[in-house]
């Protein structure tokens, strides 16, 4: 039932080889994928490769299989069109409404979501013509991803690198999952997001930690950046997650380092999203060498614990005291289990009242839920008393709903 018809357009750039992974990942997810390259793209990757990966013939012009009218039919029947890479030339032709090959003709007839993943040199990406073209496509309802920064062709580096295939397919799946388009509505908003678990050292080998993978916080940062926000991500232990495209990432280890990073960057932020799983306690003293196991002692050493700073509550207090004049929304996260005193929502409502944040994302944890998995669900509680369920799905889909709520909150305050 989830099998969708996806067109993957491939423009002529050095990053065309990454389209092979995009096609494979979408095909392995169960979708019916058809590749439409430009003539230039076939100078980088041959048609046989795309045919083998997709299981469909590959054409570039409108005069093959004319009886099936492919230049109209393919766009009409598609559930999603992904163009990766989208070169400066392809973006310009899409804006102009050109239909001089099968890909641009398909873009004109498509009435489904369209996702462009740009790839070009920094100078081309920042050129006023490209900037205007991207703005036009977004205004028309297309999703144009912010490119990654990194190594480009030759020795050049900078913004303009194609996002990794996993990031492209993540947004492709998100567009298929959302009942509405993903808006580009957070321009000018500075978002500070924390993600992952902290580790509190016991000695040079051991630490107190938790099971947070950082996937949910990374998803929030990724979605917000692609909706136009200027995002800084403070990342704790995240099991080697790749940095999201268009996001400034700061890596930390402990709760103290997280507190210092939030304290430093929060004054400039409009929104704080505290998705990190922060340790509540840390050892009062950290051994400078590994604690040895003594064979003649049956009990282990006692470890005295002290509370760590409550970063979320501290940010709320600072805003109340006027120390965060730019801060317009603070979002907390709660990983809860029910107990004899109440269920998950009972404890979450109490935490929202205690913390004083504007929104609280609530997850029920345990039995393979929330931590170290790709899918999630939960509830979103607001300080005004409204509550709604977050449907089960990918953490990116959940992140998009969280960002929807943040955007709505910002619009109400505008």
TrEMBL record:
<feature type="binding site">
    <location>
        <position position="333"/>
    </location>
    <ligand>
        <name>CTP</name>
    </ligand>
</feature>
<feature type="region of interest" description="Phosphopantothenate--cysteine ligase">
    <location>
        <begin position="191"/>
        <end position="414"/>
    </location>
</feature>
<dbReference type="GO" id="GO:0015941">
    <property type="term" value="P:pantothenate catabolic process"/>
</dbReference>
<dbReference type="GO" id="GO:0015937">
    <property type="term" value="P:coenzyme A biosynthetic process"/>
</dbReference>
<comment type="similarity">
    <text>In the C-terminal section; belongs to the PPC synthetase family.</text>
</comment>
<dbReference type="GO" id="GO:0071513">
    <property type="term" value="C:phosphopantothenoylcysteine decarboxylase complex"/>
</dbReference>
<dbReference type="Pfam" id="PF04127">
    <property type="entry name" value="DFP"/>
</dbReference>
<feature type="binding site">
    <location>
        <position position="290"/>
    </location>
    <ligand>
        <name>CTP</name>
    </ligand>
</feature>
<keyword id="KW-0288">FMN</keyword>
<comment type="function">
    <text>Catalyzes two steps in the biosynthesis of coenzyme A. In the first step cysteine is conjugated to 4'-phosphopantothenate to form 4-phosphopantothenoylcysteine, in the latter compound is decarboxylated to form 4'-phosphopantotheine.</text>
</comment>
<keyword id="KW-0210">Decarboxylase</keyword>
<feature type="region of interest" description="Phosphopantothenoylcysteine decarboxylase">
    <location>
        <begin position="1"/>
        <end position="190"/>
    </location>
</feature>
<feature type="binding site">
    <location>
        <position position="355"/>
    </location>
    <ligand>
        <name>CTP</name>
    </ligand>
</feature>
<comment type="pathway">
    <text>Cofactor biosynthesis; coenzyme A biosynthesis; CoA from (R)-pantothenate: step 2/5.</text>
</comment>
<dbReference type="InterPro" id="IPR036551">
    <property type="entry name" value="Flavin_trans-like"/>
</dbReference>
<keyword id="KW-0456">Lyase</keyword>
<comment type="pathway">
    <text>Cofactor biosynthesis; coenzyme A biosynthesis; CoA from (R)-pantothenate: step 3/5.</text>
</comment>
<dbReference type="InterPro" id="IPR007085">
    <property type="entry name" value="DNA/pantothenate-metab_flavo_C"/>
</dbReference>
<dbReference type="Pfam" id="PF02441">
    <property type="entry name" value="Flavoprotein"/>
</dbReference>
<keyword id="KW-0436">Ligase</keyword>
<feature type="domain" description="DNA/pantothenate metabolism flavoprotein C-terminal">
    <location>
        <begin position="187"/>
        <end position="408"/>
    </location>
</feature>
<comment type="function">
    <text>Catalyzes two sequential steps in the biosynthesis of coenzyme A. In the first step cysteine is conjugated to 4'-phosphopantothenate to form 4-phosphopantothenoylcysteine. In the second step the latter compound is decarboxylated to form 4'-phosphopantotheine.</text>
</comment>
<keyword id="KW-0285">Flavoprotein</keyword>
<keyword id="KW-0479">Metal-binding</keyword>
<dbReference type="InterPro" id="IPR005252">
    <property type="entry name" value="CoaBC"/>
</dbReference>
<keyword id="KW-0460">Magnesium</keyword>
<dbReference type="GO" id="GO:0010181">
    <property type="term" value="F:FMN binding"/>
</dbReference>
<dbReference type="InterPro" id="IPR035929">
    <property type="entry name" value="CoaB-like_sf"/>
</dbReference>
<protein>
    <recommendedName>
        <fullName>Coenzyme A biosynthesis bifunctional protein CoaBC</fullName>
        <ecNumber>4.1.1.36</ecNumber>
        <ecNumber>6.3.2.5</ecNumber>
    </recommendedName>
</protein>
<dbReference type="GO" id="GO:0004632">
    <property type="term" value="F:phosphopantothenate--cysteine ligase activity"/>
</dbReference>
<dbReference type="GO" id="GO:0046872">
    <property type="term" value="F:metal ion binding"/>
</dbReference>
<dbReference type="InterPro" id="IPR003382">
    <property type="entry name" value="Flavoprotein"/>
</dbReference>
<feature type="binding site">
    <location>
        <position position="280"/>
    </location>
    <ligand>
        <name>CTP</name>
    </ligand>
</feature>
<keyword id="KW-0511">Multifunctional enzyme</keyword>
<feature type="domain" description="Flavoprotein">
    <location>
        <begin position="4"/>
        <end position="169"/>
    </location>
</feature>
<dbReference type="GO" id="GO:0004633">
    <property type="term" value="F:phosphopantothenoylcysteine decarboxylase activity"/>
</dbReference>
<comment type="similarity">
    <text>In the N-terminal section; belongs to the HFCD (homo-oligomeric flavin containing Cys decarboxylase) superfamily.</text>
</comment>
<feature type="binding site">
    <location>
        <position position="351"/>
    </location>
    <ligand>
        <name>CTP</name>
    </ligand>
</feature>
